[in-house]
Design goal:
His_PPase_superfam, 228 residues, Phosphoglycerate mutase-like protein 1, 5-stranded mixed beta sheet, single chain, 7% strand
């Protein structure tokens, strides 16, 4: 299953002014209060329909808004003082005024650079250091993040075809995982460009559905089949 992050402060700013995305004030944009409400609604949905019990692994883009979304939707309940397990998210991460989130009774969450948003130029798509994130999200697994600093981000914007190629590389890596029920929490641009590479042999209506942009905090179920 694939999930786009909930509403971030950059989404609101860009709706008012398309050039706002170039502002350093939006560096590694966090969720808005509405975004957290979207997270809570999706959390209730995945619990009510049983999805939360089936998910074996959550893969998340290592940016603040996606990790907030991932732990809010798929994480444990409110953290209990004295618990021996590290929390998924500390209190008030990203000025969220959100309480600590427990890592109990939830699937492991793994940060993966390959499913990041289109890289470069925009401060909102640049990540913090790995060590900063580890202090914010103690129970997220950052072992696949090779560099403390963000060496992926450049002053030049990644092209759509480059995002699509990175998306295919991500899917090839995903095939190497043993888990069968996996949730991927990522970004609108990454998901759109990755999925647009598929469905060319399908009915136009199916292709259109595949290539429809994700709304904030939208979840879609995707079944991948190896035709080889």
């Amino acid at each position: 299953m694939q999930v786009r992050h909930a509403q971030g402060v950059h989404n609101v700013a860009e709706e008012k002014n398309p050039n706002a995305c170039f502002s350093n004030d939006l560096f590694d944009a966090q969720l808005t209060p509405l975004g957290w409400n979207q997270v809570e609604n999706l959390r209730k949905h995945v619990k009510a329909c049983g999805l939360s019990r089936r998910i074996e692994l959550v893969i998340v883009s290592p940016l603040l808004r996606t990790m907030q979304t991932a732990v809010g939707v798929f994480g444990g309940e409110a953290y209990v003082d004295g618990s021996k397990e590290p929390p998924l998210m500390m209190e008030n991460v990203g000025d969220s005024n959100h309480p600590v989130i427990s890592s109990l009774n939830c699937p492991p969450i793994l940060a993966v650079e390959l499913c990041r948003e289109k890289i470069g130029l925009l401060p909102c798509d640049k990540r913090r250091t790995k060590s900063e994130y580890q202090s914010m999200f103690p129970a997220i697994d950052f072992s696949l993040i090779e560099s403390d600093e963000d060496i992926w981000w450049t002053p030049y914007r990644e092209k759509s075809e480059e995002v699509a190629a990175r998306g295919l590389k991500f899917l090839e890596w995903l095939w190497t995982r043993q888990e069968k029920e996996i949730a991927v929490v990522s970004h609108g641009g990454f998901l759109y460009n990755t999925l647009s590479a598929f469905g060319n042999d399908c009915h136009p209506n199916v292709k259109n559905d595949i290539c429809t942009l994700f709304a904030n905090c939208e979840l879609r179920s995707v079944i991948t089949v190896d035709r080889g």
